[in-house]
Amino acid sequence: MIAILGCGLIGESWAGLMTAHGHDVILWDPAPAALTGIEQRIVRLRGEVRTAMGHAAEADGGVRIATTLAEAVGDADWIQENAPEAAALKHDLYRQIEAVNARAPIASSTSSLTWSELSPALSDPGRLLTAHPFNPPHLMPLVEIYTPDADLRRRAVDFYAGLGREPVTLRKDAVGHIANRLASALWREAVNLVAEGIADVETVDRALVHGPGLRWSVIGAHMAYHLGGGPGGIETYLRHLGPSQQRRWTSLGTPELTPSVCAMLVEGVDAEAAGRSLEQIAAARDRALVRVLAARREGMNDAA
Amino acid sequence: MIAILGCGLIGESWAGLMTAHGHDVILWDPAPAALTGIEQRIVRLRGEVRTAMGHAAEADGGVRIATTLAEAVGDADWIQENAPEAAALKHDLYRQIEAVNARAPIASSTSSLTWSELSPALSDPGRLLTAHPFNPPHLMPLVEIYTPDADLRRRAVDFYAGLGREPVTLRKDAVGHIANRLASALWREAVNLVAEGIADVETVDRALVHGPGLRWSVIGAHMAYHLGGGPGGIETYLRHLGPSQQRRWTSLGTPELTPSVCAMLVEGVDAEAAGRSLEQIAAARDRALVRVLAARREGMNDAA
């Protein structure tokens, strides 16, 4: 039994993924409104998981809704915590969990807090790990794991791999883990291009989607430079083009999110959205992800 | 007739793309060795274009090999220049072109030089544009265009769109155009993560491919933050999370490509390659790209 604590977009997406893999889940959210209609949403998310993964339908895991936190975690073997990104709130939750369940791993979906910030709340910090999914978790394969405990780390890798995810483990605790640090670095330059008037929001997004984004969906950045180095690979690249890359780095922008830059971004995103609602854009993203994931299944493993 | 000047990986890839769309091409390279066996390679590349694009085979364009530059450009309506990235060399080439063809646009595939650096060689700079493809051009849709001439810009957008590409136009000349600036910004942090010992090369690449890279293959970075802002979209995101994003930016790494960092990268890429040759990795990348492109064709347009 897996307890899912916090049932917004992340929690319900985890539930779709986990039940698609036959796990029973028990849901808890302090706001009852979050749970209204959630069973139907989980059925839809599970369908997307199966289309993307292409695996034959296993028996669905069961979905139960708990009325109290104690009911949710009492019998749990794994606890996936998706509370808001506030350390004090998560600390309080962990103390309540400890009072009723002393053994199940507590996996925090936190994107912006670190293990070191979260663990002091627990008398047994060895049961805590950060397991950050990429949104939406039922489609995006990445789960970023950190815990200093080697046994728990191995157990977590097995657990998320068993959900068809691609778990990666950090050697050190880092704010933003890996993926959000990369995303933040890229976005800084994306903002700079707009702020400097080199291109508008939509043009920058199109360049990313049809260029580096597409390429990074099948090959990593380091490996791409290996291929960019000619017959000598990355060693040659670094020897010949390392210095010019380093000069390029110093020429990248360091924009500030001033009111006028923010206005350019809001206006540009508005133009790019072209009247589509957030829901329509997210649904289109997920339809495209389902298709791309299904395609990658066939051609990806040898390229990654 | 399209003249392709410089027939390394970029030139032959352009030839595969252009002939798949029914254009006749004439190839020239100062090193005859580059042209050995090129017809067979173009046939293979054309096959990949058609699988990726999913369009019914048009009549193939013809392929001719020129023995002199004058023969290549004499009758050309469009000139795609893929010479090495050295301004003096390209300047010299442009002067030779001017002597035998006074009217066809000269589109430079340059990745690192700018229009402003290249145009002074021409007595008629108005015929020059930068048209930077993303490697490999026969599969990657992006072409980044800059010319200050609005007519030529429109003509170039039509030309590359007619090749099934996604042309984007810059408002200002910029070193690295858009995509390589974004890629460089991301790679800086990717190097930092390795240099700081947070994760190894392969882990960083896996996090990118299964996380942000995959997402950016269907939705841009600006639009992703629009969806990350909750019901208020990017306006809410900027208001509530702008300050923390700006703090994150200042905490990103500014690594130097010292000998020890370079050694970590070379060793890490070597481990990730796991014995596969550059050719095997590039072929696997291209197989995966063909599949992903075919999948995106169906689900993409509404998400981009």
UniProtKB/TrEMBL annotation, chains A, B:
Sequence ranges assigned to domain 3-hydroxyacyl-CoA dehydrogenase C-terminal in this UniProt record: 176-244
Organism from which the protein derives: Sphingobium cyanobacteriorum
SUPFAM superfamilies, sorted: 6-phosphogluconate dehydrogenase C-terminal domain-like, NAD(P)-binding Rossmann-fold domains
Residue ranges occupied by any 3-hydroxyacyl-CoA dehydrogenase NAD binding domain in the UniProt entry: 2-173
Cross-referenced InterPro entries: 3-OHacyl-CoA_DH (IPR022694), 3-OHacyl-CoA_DH_NAD-bd (IPR006176), 3HC_DH_C (IPR006108), 6-PGluconate_DH-like_C_sf (IPR008927), 6PGD_dom2 (IPR013328), NAD(P)-bd_dom_sf (IPR036291)
The name this protein goes by in its record: 3-hydroxyacyl-CoA dehydrogenase NAD-binding domain-containing protein
UniProtKB keywords: Oxidoreductase
Pfam families: 3HCDH, 3HCDH_N
